[in-house]
């Protein structure tokens, strides 16, 4: 994320309105705000589909996808930890997002601003607004809480609790409202479902619907002509159909059943007592249906208008069924991956179904009638190592440890091509100056060039001896490609046109993890863990020209756009500014204190006292060379004034406490004899459920 933010700052600086005035540029960059989050379309939680807008949680943020334009944006609002569930009001004005600690924020979706904060003091497993939009129900542990929906007016206490219900013997897992907003059905891990009243009723005892052998995954109401019905679905793939019947109908059904002879033996006294009872209504089990899948059912969603049911399973398969009275008709079965389908959601008309796979970062929208994809995105499976903007700023390429290179559209926030030809982690990526191709260097010992017009690997550059490439650079003409190795400490130089190896530069005594071409002179700068930056003459074949010695390992290098200054970041958190013509040091930026703040989960010190290991790992100049962006293993990206070597502004990447390096204060209450509570295994975690599957 740090690398992405740094490159984004570079692209933003290139688009400033006054490229020659540093003061105007600084003032313009002071108004830049967070815009989008790429690389992770979906990372867990539930999905919300309102009209042609799809809302999903990504870490501690919420992304909104416009399915008509196939574009995604990320809301600027942040929770303190990973988001567990999201709920959107029927009007689409309000949105509630709950994190893993039970803290919630109320967001105005249209204006993209946070209205209120609320702490529910417990893990929230599900939340849903009533169809009328006047209230919402929240499942907090074993309790069911009904709250009044806050208004748009400024209030001191906007969240107003209407009532709380208990009675569950284990945590509640799912809920659903009736169509008239009068009833709530709640399923839980205690293998039962209960029906609560949204309004106070004297003498009402919530009925218990039991019979399942596994925890409930989904519940739903279904208003039918012959009475009030509901469905309960459990993890073992069992669907129970329940119906609210009068006592007279219940007795008639019993008389017509298989136990008819046993009912007649009760005697006249029991019959007379039954006649004296007041007439009432009871929930009766009307039918049982089974999916017959080899793996457990992981999610399910029922659409009341069309009677359609979508069910997702742990082996990446989802099915569509049409439900009616005592009917369970199978329509479709589709496999989207080999991993667990985490969430599914229908739109209002029942034409589209959104599905998410948290482990793969996969998000798709399926139109079941035409059997086509409306939207399909999948992020990187492992960490992103590098990213690069195209020369025109329209595309972003990312390289990851999952052996793939993805190309994203900066305007829509969606990727449109994935290159998976590499057989090892990809550590560097860059565009050709023409913008028609992207190059990537991998640990598999190859540098590959991909055509962005035909989407194919048109050139593969290799070395005579096996090595692992971790850095990459292309000269301004786009004809020379250089790659630095991790194990042989060499720099390989190829001709992109012929694919022939031109030369191999040796001289470094450590891994070459940074390369950069000068825009105006025939110089190549290489940074290494041997505490040196070496300048090479690639075109004339003179090899090494100068050695710039440092006191610590060099992690990143960058040339100013005019080629008259070279910036080098070292392991001690400093940035050295060199004049490459005569190898003279022009200035030094002390950046370790600028990166101070934030501690890892295992640290027993506050964030202000944790400075060890803070260093910048990527550098980028602005278009006029007046500003320098630097990012590393801190929680912020720093913007410096090159002439004054002073810090101008810090851009915070995230406020999520689930990420290492973002927590400022040491909370001793979460430190036990066994270690920090955040590092101890949690039995209720979704990851443990995946392992059990």
Descriptive keywords:
single chain, 693 residues, mainly beta, four-stranded antiparallel beta sheet, 6 helices, 54 strands, 46% strand, elongated, disordered N terminus, disordered C terminus
Task: Kindly describe this structure.
The protein is built from 6 helices and 54 strands. With 693 residues, it is mostly beta strands. It has a 4-stranded antiparallel beta sheet with strand order 1-2-3-4, with no helix packed on it. Strands 5-6-7-8 form a 4-stranded antiparallel beta sheet, with no helix packed on it. Strands 9-10-11-12 form a 4-stranded antiparallel beta sheet, with no helix packed on it. A hairpin with a 4-residue loop joins strand 14 (183-188) and strand 15. The longest helix has 13 residues, at 2-14. The two termini are 31 Å apart.
Please summarize what this structure is.
7% of the residues lie in helices and 46% in strands. The chain is mostly beta strands.
SSE topology sketch:
Layout: H1 2-14, H2 22-29, E1 48-50, E2 53-58, E3 61-66, E4 71-74, E5 83-88, E6 94-99, E7 103-108, E8 113-119, E9 124-129, E10 135-140, E11 143-148, E12 160-165, E13 172-177, E14 183-188, E15 193-197, E16 208-209, E17 216-224, E18 227-234, E19 238-246, H3 247-256, H4 260-263, H5 268-276, E20 281-290, E21 297-303, E22 308-313, E23 317-324, E24 327-335, E25 343-346, E26 352-357, E27 362-367, E28 372-378, E29 384-389, E30 395-400, E31 405-409, E32 415-419, E33 426-431, E34 437-442, E35 446-451, E36 456-462, E37 469-474, E38 480-485, E39 491-495, E40 501-505, E41 512-517, E42 524-528, E43 532-537, E44 543-549, E45 554-559, E46 566-570, E47 574-579, E48 584-590, E49 616-621, E50 627-632, E51 636-641, E52 646-652, E53 671-672, E54 675-676, H6 686-692
């Amino acid at each position: 994320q740090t690398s992405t933010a740094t490159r984004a700052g570079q692209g933003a600086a290139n688009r400033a309105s006054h490229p020659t005035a540093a003061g105007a540029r600084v003032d313009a960059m002071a108004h830049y705000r967070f815009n989008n989050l790429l690389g992770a379309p979906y990372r867990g939680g539930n999905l919300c589909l309102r009209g042609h807008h799809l809302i999903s949680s990504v870490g501690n943020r919420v992304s909104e996808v416009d399915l008509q334009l196939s574009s995604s944006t990320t809301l600027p609002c942040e929770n303190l930890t990973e988001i567990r569930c999201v709920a959107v009001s029927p009007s689409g004005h309000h949105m509630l997002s709950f994190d893993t600690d039970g803290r919630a924020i109320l967001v105005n979706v249209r204006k993209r601003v946070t209205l209120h904060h609320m702490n529910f003091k417990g893990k929230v497993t599900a939340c849903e607004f009533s169809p009328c939009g006047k209230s919402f129900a929240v499942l907090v542990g074993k309790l069911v809480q009904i709250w009044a929906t806050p208004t748009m007016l400024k209030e001191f206490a906007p969240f107003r609790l209407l009532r709380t219900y208990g009675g569950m013997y284990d945590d509640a897992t799912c809920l659903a409202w009736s169509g008239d907003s009068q009833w709530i059905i709640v399923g839980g891990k205690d293998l039962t479902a209960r029906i609560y009243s949204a309004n106070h009723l004297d003498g009402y005892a919530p009925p218990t619907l039991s019979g399942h052998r596994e925890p409930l995954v989904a519940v739903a109401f279904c208003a039918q002509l012959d009475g009030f019905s509901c469905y309960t679905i459990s993890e073992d793939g069992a669907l129970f159909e329940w119906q609210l019947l009068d006592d007279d109908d219940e007795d008639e059904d019993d008389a017509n059943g298989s136990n008819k002879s046993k009912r007649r033996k009760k005697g006249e006294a029991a019959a007379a007592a039954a006649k004296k009872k007041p007439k009432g209504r009871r929930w009766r089990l009307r039918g049982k249906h089974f999916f017959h899948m080899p793996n457990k059912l992981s999610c399910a969603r029922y659409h009341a208008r069309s009677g359609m049911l979508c069910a997702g399973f742990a082996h990446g398969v989802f099915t569509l069924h049409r439900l009616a009275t005592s009917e369970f008709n199978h329509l479709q079965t589709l496999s989207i991956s080999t991993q667990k389908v985490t969430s599914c959601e229908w739109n209002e008309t029942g034409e589209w179904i959104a599905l998410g796979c948290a482990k793969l970062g996969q998000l798709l929208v399926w139109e079941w009638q035409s059997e086509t994809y409306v939207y399909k995105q999948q992020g990187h499976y492992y960490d992103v190592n590098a990213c690069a903007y195209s020369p025109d700023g329209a595309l972003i390429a990312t390289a990851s440890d999952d052996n793939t290179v993805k190309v994203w559209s900066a305007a829509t926030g969606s990727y449109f091509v994935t290159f998976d030809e590499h057989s090892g982690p990809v550590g560097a990526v860059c565009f050709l100056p023409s913008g028609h191709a992207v190059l990537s260097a991998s640990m598999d010992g190859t540098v590959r060039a991909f055509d962005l017009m035909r989407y194919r690997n048109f050139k593969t550059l290799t070395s005579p001896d096996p090595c692992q490439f971790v850095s990459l650079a292309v000269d301004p003409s786009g004809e020379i490609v250089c790659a630095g190795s991790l194990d042989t400490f060499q720099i390989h130089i190829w001709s992109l046109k012929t694919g022939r190896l031109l030369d191999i530069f040796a001289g470094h005594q450590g891994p070459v993890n940074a390369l950069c071409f000068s825009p105006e002179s025939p110089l190549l700068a290489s940074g290494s863990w041997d505490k040196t930056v070496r300048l090479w003459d690639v075109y004339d074949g003179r090899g090494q020209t100068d050695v710039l010695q440092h006191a610590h390992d060099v992690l990143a290098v960058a040339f100013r756009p005019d080629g008259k200054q070279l910036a080098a970041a070292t392991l001690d958190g400093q940035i050295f500014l060199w004049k490459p013509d005569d190898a003279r040091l022009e200035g030094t930026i002390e950046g370790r204190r600028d990166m101070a703040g934030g501690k890892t989960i295992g640290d027993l010190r506050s964030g202000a006292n944790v400075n060890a290991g803070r260093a910048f790992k990527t550098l980028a100049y602005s278009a006029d060379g007046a500003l320098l962006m630097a990012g590393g293993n801190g929680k912020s990206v720093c913007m410096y004034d090159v002439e004054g070597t002073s810090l101008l502004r810090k851009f915070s990447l995230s406020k999520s406490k689930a990420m290492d390096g973002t927590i400022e204060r040491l909370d001793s209450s979460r430190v036990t004899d066994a270690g920090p509570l955040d590092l101890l295994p949690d039995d209720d975690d979704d990851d443990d459920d995946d392992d059990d599957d």
